[in-house]
């Protein structure tokens, strides 16, 4: 039975990130399967009101202002009238909220329960239990999920974490992983430059176009604490001092950027460490194919879309052994390291040595394997089954 689904999250385009990509791709595939889908988020600058994306996907940019890290203020009342209007106008039957960091998602779950609508919550992150931020967020999650009949997590580790944090029966939590649009993340020349050489570095931003020798390590991440930026700084300092054949390209923006800028100044690494700043999602693939190794230093991660995108482009992936990361790729495509400077350096050096010795897997073969692992249409099909179960329970 076709549903009218309302996707709600503070995190959506034009912002770039894993949640944003997940909501967009899932919405497009559900539209393809015959469902009516609208997305609700807050205004981004002058982007307010109703906008239309591919396949007529309608997006409501509500006149709400973000308070911190692109999330709106955590209150129920400022969104009630706006969400009520959307629910009625779009004849919504299922409310699908995304991310525990999103205050708007929590609001939508509360209001869906008051309207008697079926509701689903997808958790994209892992939280602890001891620090003040986690205690408050977990308390809010327990309250908001009280009216939700189903939840979805992107990994089995995330499922266990959500069940404990939200005091939710594990039987009500499904595991549906993220996916990657393999047609957009392919090995080979960068977009619009079929004749580029030297591992396709010629089409990277001008500040990256500098050499063909050596191995390029790519890092694309939000530059925040939980992404391990302080750990990354230690890794860069040690690798730069011990391996002159390694160069680093870092894409992303955040409050921890200053840590990397100070490192580059202190060790005079301007010719080896390039900070690209915020990247448009369309630029990510071109940056990835210009590299050889992808490095992820996250301190906590439920899934990590970035390493799937990098592997789809054929890169060697080195990552911290945290959260749901070990579930994402098979061992021969993923080098797992303890979240320490010493272990991560050893992992990057081992990957670099494999590349220089010609023992790394073929990029096209790696891409084909990742393409078979994850597919958004499969994710949409499994999400549709959860929506059907959720609606039937709600009717009962």
From TrEMBL:
Keywords: Glycosyltransferase, GPI-anchor biosynthesis, Transferase. It comes from the Eukaryota. CDD domains: GT4_PIG-A-like. Residues 216-330 form the Glycosyl transferase family domain. It is an enzyme of class 2 (transferase). Its EC number is 2.4.1.198. Pathway: Glycolipid biosynthesis; glycosylphosphatidylinositol-anchor biosynthesis. GO terms for biological process: GPI anchor biosynthetic process. InterPro entries: Glyco_trans_1, PIG-A/GPI3, PIGA_GPI_anchor_biosynthesis. One of its GO terms (cellular component) is glycosylphosphatidylinositol-N-acetylglucosaminyltransferase (GPI-GnT) complex. Residues 42-131 form the PIGA GPI anchor biosynthesis domain. Gene3D superfamilies: Glycogen Phosphorylase B. It holds the Pfam family PIGA. GO terms for molecular function: phosphatidylinositol N-acetylglucosaminyltransferase activity. This is phosphatidylinositol N-acetylglucosaminyltransferase. It comes from Eptatretus burgeri.
């Amino acid at each position: 039975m076709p549903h009218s689904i309302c996707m709600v999250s503070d995190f959506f385009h034009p912002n770039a990130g894993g949640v944003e990509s997940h909501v967009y791709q899932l919405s497009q595939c559900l539209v393809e399967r015959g469902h009516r889908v609208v997305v609700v988020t807050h205004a981004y600058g002058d982007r307010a009101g109703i906008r239309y994306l591919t396949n007529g996907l309608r997006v409501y940019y509500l006149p709400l202002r973000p308070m911190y890290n692109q999330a709106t203020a955590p209150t129920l009342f400022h969104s009630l009238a706006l969400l009520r209007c959307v629910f009625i106008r779009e004849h919504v039957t299922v409310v699908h909220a995304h991310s525990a960091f999103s205050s708007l998602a929590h609001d939508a779950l509360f209001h869906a329960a008051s309207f008697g609508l079926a509701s689903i919550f997808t958790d994209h992150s892992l939280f602890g239990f001891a620090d003040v931020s986690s205690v408050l967020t977990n308390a809010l999650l327990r309250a908001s999920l009280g009216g939700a009949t189903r939840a979805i997590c992107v990994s089995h580790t995330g499922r266990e974490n959500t069940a404990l944090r939200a005091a939710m029966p594990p039987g009500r939590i499904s595991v549906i992983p993220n996916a990657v649009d393999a047609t957009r993340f392919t090995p080979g020349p960068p977009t619009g430059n079929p004749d580029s050489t030297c591992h396709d570095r010629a089409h990277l931003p001008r500040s990256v176009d500098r050499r063909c020798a050596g191995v390029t390590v790519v890092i694309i991440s939000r530059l925040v604490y939980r992404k391990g930026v302080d750990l990354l700084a230690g890794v860069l300092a040690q690798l730069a001092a011990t391996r002159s054949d390694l160069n680093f390209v870092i894409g992303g923006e955040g409050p921890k950027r200053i840590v990397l800028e100070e490192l580059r100044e202190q060790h005079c690494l301007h010719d080896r460490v390039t900070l690209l700043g915020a990247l448009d999602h369309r630029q990510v693939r071109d940056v990835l194919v210009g590299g050889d190794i992808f490095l992820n230093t996250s301190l906590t991660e439920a899934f990590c879309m970035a390493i799937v995108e990098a592997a789809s482009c054929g890169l060697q992936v080195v990552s911290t052994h945290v959260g749901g990361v070990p579930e994402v790729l098979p061992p021969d495509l993923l080098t797992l390291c303890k979240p320490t400077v010493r272990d991560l350096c050893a992992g990057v050096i081992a990957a670099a040595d494999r590349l220089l010795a010609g023992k790394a897997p073929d990029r096209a073969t790696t891409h084909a394997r990742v393409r078979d692992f994850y597919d958004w249409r499969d994710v949409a099909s499994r999400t549709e089954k959860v929506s059907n179960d959720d609606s039937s329970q709600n009717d009962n």
